[in-house]
């Protein structure tokens, strides 16, 4: 699935003679250009509208039937409400599945492949957004703070850091850089799901940094014999000129000469990290050719170390 988007649904009810109801909805534009923020905004607006209307798709009987057995022996007549404590339990579950995530009451669905829960914690509103593939398998599950749309995938993100606004790239990976270069503050709006700039004192105020570390979404990695051999980017601005698989790193890696189109065309040395069988979790380290030689870029790439949960609970 190239890129999953949340959708905005409008549910209107008109009472007709004989007690019949009319349910109407409008589906989301599924184009690749819809941003992460738009998807999460749509979910948040749906929450607000459902609250105001006092009615939801789940109340109207559109929620799919739940699996017979739930997490920890819970059955369908023993549904729990979602809470932050429950989200934390889910985040450390090995082999997290849709069955685990659908075990709670008040799940909302706005389109095929997307569902969410809305809840509050210490007076702050959140949604837990669940993405499924066309084959009915879990693709991603993001905890979103509705006030500013700061979000993490609970499979590999640090929930406590989201609660305290301390999310950083170091929650996922570290990298050794040449002297005078450093990883900057976390930018939640860096495509696709956040990341950080790499800069010197001289470049930190420039539009294009010396490098970037990006949390990727919607890409299609290709594996052969345990190696990452190709990547089909969801971001149409990225084009790999050359590709080389690198073995003996903490995760399969594809090293590339990468061109990025924008207001100006930028050339990078880049490394993409992903693991086979782990859906929608990828990391892209981009090092600008003007700032790094190929040897310096390779040294940085080979220094990358991942946090224990960088690819979920394995």
Describe the structure.
The longest helix has 18 residues, at 36-53. With 314 residues, this protein is α+β, with helices and mostly antiparallel strands. A seven-stranded antiparallel sheet has the order 7-8-9-15-14-13-12, covered by helices on one side. The protein has a five-stranded antiparallel sheet with strand order 1-2-3-4-5. The protein has a two-stranded antiparallel ribbon with strand order 6-16. 14% of the residues lie in helices and 31% in strands. The two termini are 23 Å apart. Strand 13 (253-260) and strand 14 form a beta hairpin. The chain contains five helices and 16 strands. It has helices spanning 36-53, 84-91, 98-101, 159-163, 294-302; strands at 108-111, 114-121, 124-132, 138-145, 151-153, 173-174, 182-187, 195-199, 211-216, 220-224, 227-232, 238-246, 253-260, 266-273, 282-288, 305-306.
Keywords:
314 residues; alpha+beta; 7-stranded antiparallel beta sheet; 5-stranded antiparallel beta sheet; 5 helices; 31% strand; globular
Write the layout of secondary structure elements.
Blueprint: H1 36-53, H2 84-91, H3 98-101, E1 108-111, E2 114-121, E3 124-132, E4 138-145, E5 151-153, H4 159-163, E6 173-174, E7 182-187, E8 195-199, E9 211-216, E10 220-224, E11 227-232, E12 238-246, E13 253-260, E14 266-273, E15 282-288, H5 294-302, E16 305-306
Antiparallel strand pairs: 1-2, 2-3, 3-4, 4-5, 6-16, 7-8, 8-9, 9-15, 10-11, 12-13, 13-14, 14-15
The global form is globular
Euclidean distance between termini CA atoms: 23 Å
SSE arrangement, N to C: HHHEEEEEHEEEEEEEEEEHE
Largest sheet: 7 strands, antiparallel
| Average pLDDT, all residues | 82
Structural class by helix and strand composition? alpha+beta
Task: Give the total of beta strands.
Answer: 16
Strand content: 25-35%
Low-confidence stretches: 1-37, 50-77
Rg, alpha carbons: 21 Å
Helix amount, in percent? Answer: 10-25%
Task: Figure out the total of helices.
Answer: 5
Strand order, largest beta sheet: 7-8-9-15-14-13-12
């Amino acid at each position: 699935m190239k890129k999953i988007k949340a959708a905005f649904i409008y549910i209107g009810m008109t009472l007709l003679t004989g007690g019949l109801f009319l349910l109407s909805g409008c589906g989301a534009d599924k184009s690749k250009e819809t941003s992460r923020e738009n998807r999460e905004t749509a979910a948040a607006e749906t929450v607000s509208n459902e609250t105001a209307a006092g009615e939801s798709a789940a109340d109207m009987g559109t929620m799919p039937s739940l699996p017979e057995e739930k997490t920890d022996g819970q059955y369908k007549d023993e549904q729990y409400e979602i809470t932050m404590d429950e989200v934390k339990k889910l985040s450390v579950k090995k082999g997290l599945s849709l069955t685990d995530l659908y075990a709670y009451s008040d799940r909302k669905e706005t389109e095929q492949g997307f569902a969410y829960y809305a809840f509050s914690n210490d007076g702050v509103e959140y949604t837990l957004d669940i993405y499924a593939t066309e084959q009915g398998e879990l693709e991603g599950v993001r905890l979103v703070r509705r006030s500013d749309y700061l979000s993490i995938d609970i499979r590999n993100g640090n929930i406590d850091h989201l609660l305290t606004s301390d999310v950083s790239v170091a929650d996922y990976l570290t990298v050794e850089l040449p002297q005078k270069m450093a990883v900057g503050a976390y930018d939640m709006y860096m495509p696709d799901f956040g990341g950080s700039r790499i800069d010197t004192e001289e470049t930190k105020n420039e539009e294009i940094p010396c490098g970037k570390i990006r949390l990727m979404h919607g890409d299609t990695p290709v594996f052969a014999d345990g190696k990452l051999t190709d990547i089909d980017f969801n971001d149409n601005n990225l084009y790999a000129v050359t590709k080389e698989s690198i073995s003996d790193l903490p995760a399969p890696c594809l090293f590339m000469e990468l061109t990025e189109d924008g207001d100006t065309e930028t050339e990078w040395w880049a490394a993409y990290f992903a693991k086979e069988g782990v859906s929608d979790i990828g990391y892209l380290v981009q090092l600008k050719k003007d700032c790094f030689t190929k040897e310096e870029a390779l040294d940085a790439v080979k220094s990358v170390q991942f946090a224990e949960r960088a690819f979920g609970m394995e």
